[in-house]
Design a protein that fits this description.
Elements lengths: L2 H8 L1 H18 L15 E7 L5 H16 L5 E9 L2 E8 L2 H25 L16
Antiparallel strand pairs: 1-3, 2-3
């Protein structure tokens, strides 16, 4: 037998006490850890719940879901709409443009504007005033 095994068997009370102390330190230190095991996740989606008590799914779809979907079509930044009509209830889920994607696009636009301003400055064209309306983009 190894000397550690012989010592542990001879001093069972001491080993038990050391085990309890180790468990106590572990229990105290776990809440103080700064590492997040489950980080917060923000999904770019919104759910609209619309109750309509006593209505059939067809009525809910025609009188609740369709008007809400028609209204939400005008909102910029929506990539998809999913609707569910059940008896007395409607759930409409909107998928939005992710924030990171939107930030990247904004940065690209700013870089393009800066490059255009530099080119205009080199060509001697005066920069556009802030009060001027930008031209509409071609789709």
């Amino acid at each position: 037998m190894c000397w550690l095994s012989r010592f542990s068997l001879a001093q069972r009370a001491l080993i038990g006490l050391m085990s309890i102390i180790a468990l106590a330190f572990g229990a105290i230190s776990i809440p103080q850890l700064k590492q997040q095991l489950l980080p917060t996740i923000e999904l770019p989606m919104v759910s609209v719940l619309a109750p309509y008590q006593g209505a059939s799914p067809d009525v809910v779809e025609k009188q609740v879901v369709e008007p809400i979907e028609d209204t939400l079509e005008a909102v910029d930044g929506i990539t998809g709409v999913t609707s569910t009509a059940s008896e007395g209830n409607a759930v409409i889920t909107l998928l939005l443009v992710p924030t990171l994607y939107a930030m990247i696009e904004i940065r690209k636009e700013r870089r393009a504007e800066k490059k255009a301003a530099k080119r205009a400055k080199k060509a001697g064209v005066p920069p556009r005033q802030a009060s001027e309306e930008p031209e509409p983009a071609q789709v």
